[in-house]
Amino acid sequence: MKENKKKPAQSSRIFIIIWGFVMHIIFLWGVMDANFHSPIIQGLPVVPMPSGSPAKRILVFVADGLRFRTFKSFTPPYLNSIIKKGGVWGISHTRMPTESRPGNIAIVAGLYEDPSALFKGWKENPVDFDSVFNQSRASWLWGSPDIIPIFTKGNNHNIHGASYPASWQDFSNEPGATKRLDDWVFQEYSKWLANEAPAYKTEDKIIFYFHLLGCDTAGHAAKPQSKQYVDTMIQLDRNIKKVVDNTENYFGKHTTAYIFTSDHGMTDWGSHGSGSTDETETPFVAWGAGIAKDSNTIDIKQADITPLISALVGIPVPVNNEGVLHHELLDPKNDEFIANALLTNAKQLAEQIKANRELTTGRSIVNQFYKDKEYHEKLARAERILDKGATEKSITELEYVTKLSEEVLTYYRRYQTDRFLFCLMLMWVGWIALLFVDLSGLPRRTIQLGCYSWMLLANIALGVASIPLFIEYAVAGCKEWRLFGYGMICVISLWLAFRGIIKKGPTLEIDSNKPFIEALGIVFLTFMMFVGLIYRWTFSISMLVAVGLQKLIFDRNAPSWLLITGAALVVFPLLPVVGPQPRVYIVLIALGVSIVPIIRKRRIHNYNKVIEVIRIILTSLLCLNVIDGRAWLSWLLLLSTPLVISLYPKDWNQRIFGVTVALLSPLALLSASYEPIFFLIFATHIQHWPTFEFSQKSESGLRVLRLRNFSTAAFLMLYTLLCFFGTGNMASLSSFDPSWTRHFLTVFSPFTMASLILLKFVIPLILVGCLIRALAPDSTIFSAVLLLGDCLAIPLMYGVTNQGSWLDIGSAISRFAIAIVLPCLLLLVFYLTQPFTTFSLQDFLRRRAIKNQRLKI
């Protein structure tokens, strides 16, 4: 009978494990999918540009990394003459991330960075979006090997490109290194003009693209306020003048248009990627055939350059374009062509809006954005006005229409993302409820008739909730199958949670004198951990709350050193993060302080003391560079650590002390500042935890979830996060500073360096794993961690974004991923620390000796 009762419970537990794994995979994938799904829609119709384009060909010069502020302060002579009397100029505003790939794509495709490229890798991606090159009769591209292949790979029909060797992209600041990059590009055009130009002299719809990396390289090497940066820009200006003169002489005047711009700017310290003004404001100059002459500054968005290129050479606007054509950039003498070009741009954007609407809401008008309707009404009205010959009025109307498109497109894309996230959030809430009921619920002794009614109601609700999803997907013509999929999983998750609540009565045993205060503290601590992932300093508040909770929970049993060291840990999140410059004296102070408890510890054998003192002295000499340990000594200290730990008795106090002092040497060798001091205080805090086990059974003998489990889980989560954020922040988690491994390596080895840096972060976590084993090696602790971690993931899922710099995007993803994997990380360190707490070399040798004696007998 007992075996029969165990089988349903065992089956239920297996189902929860499998379902939980599925939920975590779907949740993690779904949040990434909602935010980083490609906005590119394939198969959009091409809208042809009207005849009468003013230019047969266009030359586009992209000065990589040239910021507007430097360009305006040191405007080069030739382009300055264009600005004053020969064309239009202004500021091209880029979007984050201000990197080369998104900037160049925005210029020629009118498409801002494809978020899915974050997970594809971007240097060698085939072209899966439309661009002006695809629509041209022929295009020639010259420049960086990181950029040109983006447009040429997989398309050899009408797009021709060439790049210089990647080794030329040298940031060593050698004389002439930056100018060589741009000179090569201009020389390639001169060769083309001499050899291939005759075959295309009368052809139209021709594009030349000059990707000029000189300014970017000079900016990284010597900074953008340097003479080298300005000289590179002046040299670039001379080359542009030479190219324009040769082009005009060969093809004739008034047949070629020219655009000069940049893909992104640069900060004073030579970086880019974020959203400062110096990074997002780039120069824009246009002149030649079809271009207006206006010396006033004009502000445009970077993607607006794409429809301008299309209009000037008479090619269709790329189907994925989001930019709008600015009529003030074009020669007002061609007002009829301008009006028709604006109409073409508006129709192309209308196709994008239609495709996004059908993808998101289907053919139903119920969820149609009201400005979508306004857009199409205004577009039809503008077309009627143009047909009547009122050109100026139609231009004004079309200008409003095209600018309205961005708002409509943003609405549908945001609407789709919000619906995905809402479904995922409800799915996750259902999973958390099911998990809580499974862990804390006790089977109801009697299932009354009302319970069967509720079960029937839950089944009916499942069917009813599925109907609108099916109608929207199958009947209304919504083309987004992901919405139907996420919606159905959400409904199933809530259905399972509801059934679980009916079958089991949620029970949480209160084992606290002040349960309300303790519960409030747990909630607040969890919230502060969420905030701490964004603002590191708030971990100080979290630690203060933890100390208060420990005093409340342990009451008179709370060791004074537990509270003192907990208060000391408050300081570290307030300190600056550890930088690359070593502060050896701080490391030496920590090593010196550690000798005192080693010598004074009474219960430690003398041979352990001698070994540890020798290790610390050798570590100090290595840190002072008195000894070069990169050949073998540093590695010996690192690899001998497990052996040294195994020499300590398995008693908790002695073993955790041994783990601390043994791990201190390799940590010190990998440290640059106060990391060893943090480690010693953190280890002292761990050592003084009350080591009694929390009983996991109620008075009835059944395993139940207690409030104390959640307190312990919250502390363990905080300690785990503090291991990372006590000395660093989100950026330092992904940093790769070679100086941290200076005592181990003589040559650059990325894999070995990454392994050592990972070890540096893992060492404090070993203490957390040892604490788990000492407190309560029981599944209820991990269950409580899983519950709190999953609750922590809900607000963090809304922080994941595809906007901002690569650092902003990566940090948001990392915060969310940490909440998801935190329970798994604690489980992993629990098993990894088993040999640190249970293996004794003396016991092992004794058993081997006894075994050998028995074999002899």
TrEMBL record:
<feature type="transmembrane region" description="Helical">
    <location>
        <begin position="613"/>
        <end position="636"/>
    </location>
</feature>
<dbReference type="InterPro" id="IPR007070">
    <property type="entry name" value="GPI_EtnP_transferase_1"/>
</dbReference>
<feature type="domain" description="GPI ethanolamine phosphate transferase 1 C-terminal">
    <location>
        <begin position="409"/>
        <end position="805"/>
    </location>
</feature>
<keyword id="KW-0472">Membrane</keyword>
<dbReference type="GO" id="GO:0051377">
    <property type="term" value="F:mannose-ethanolamine phosphotransferase activity"/>
</dbReference>
<dbReference type="InterPro" id="IPR002591">
    <property type="entry name" value="Phosphodiest/P_Trfase"/>
</dbReference>
<comment type="function">
    <text>Ethanolamine phosphate transferase involved in glycosylphosphatidylinositol-anchor biosynthesis. Transfers ethanolamine phosphate to the first alpha-1,4-linked mannose of the glycosylphosphatidylinositol precursor of GPI-anchor.</text>
</comment>
<feature type="transmembrane region" description="Helical">
    <location>
        <begin position="483"/>
        <end position="502"/>
    </location>
</feature>
<comment type="pathway">
    <text>Glycolipid biosynthesis; glycosylphosphatidylinositol-anchor biosynthesis.</text>
</comment>
<dbReference type="InterPro" id="IPR037671">
    <property type="entry name" value="PIGN_N"/>
</dbReference>
<feature type="transmembrane region" description="Helical">
    <location>
        <begin position="780"/>
        <end position="800"/>
    </location>
</feature>
<feature type="transmembrane region" description="Helical">
    <location>
        <begin position="12"/>
        <end position="32"/>
    </location>
</feature>
<keyword id="KW-0808">Transferase</keyword>
<feature type="transmembrane region" description="Helical">
    <location>
        <begin position="812"/>
        <end position="832"/>
    </location>
</feature>
<feature type="transmembrane region" description="Helical">
    <location>
        <begin position="656"/>
        <end position="686"/>
    </location>
</feature>
<dbReference type="GO" id="GO:0006506">
    <property type="term" value="P:GPI anchor biosynthetic process"/>
</dbReference>
<keyword id="KW-0325">Glycoprotein</keyword>
<keyword id="KW-0812">Transmembrane</keyword>
<dbReference type="InterPro" id="IPR017852">
    <property type="entry name" value="GPI_EtnP_transferase_1_C"/>
</dbReference>
<feature type="transmembrane region" description="Helical">
    <location>
        <begin position="584"/>
        <end position="601"/>
    </location>
</feature>
<feature type="transmembrane region" description="Helical">
    <location>
        <begin position="419"/>
        <end position="437"/>
    </location>
</feature>
<protein>
    <recommendedName>
        <fullName>GPI ethanolamine phosphate transferase 1</fullName>
        <ecNumber>2.-.-.-</ecNumber>
    </recommendedName>
</protein>
<dbReference type="GO" id="GO:0005789">
    <property type="term" value="C:endoplasmic reticulum membrane"/>
</dbReference>
<dbReference type="Pfam" id="PF01663">
    <property type="entry name" value="Phosphodiest"/>
</dbReference>
<dbReference type="InterPro" id="IPR017850">
    <property type="entry name" value="Alkaline_phosphatase_core_sf"/>
</dbReference>
<dbReference type="Pfam" id="PF04987">
    <property type="entry name" value="PigN"/>
</dbReference>
<feature type="transmembrane region" description="Helical">
    <location>
        <begin position="449"/>
        <end position="471"/>
    </location>
</feature>
<comment type="similarity">
    <text>Belongs to the PIGG/PIGN/PIGO family. PIGN subfamily.</text>
</comment>
<feature type="transmembrane region" description="Helical">
    <location>
        <begin position="747"/>
        <end position="768"/>
    </location>
</feature>
<keyword id="KW-1133">Transmembrane helix</keyword>
<feature type="transmembrane region" description="Helical">
    <location>
        <begin position="514"/>
        <end position="531"/>
    </location>
</feature>
<feature type="transmembrane region" description="Helical">
    <location>
        <begin position="707"/>
        <end position="727"/>
    </location>
</feature>
<keyword id="KW-0337">GPI-anchor biosynthesis</keyword>
<feature type="transmembrane region" description="Helical">
    <location>
        <begin position="561"/>
        <end position="578"/>
    </location>
</feature>
<keyword id="KW-0256">Endoplasmic reticulum</keyword>
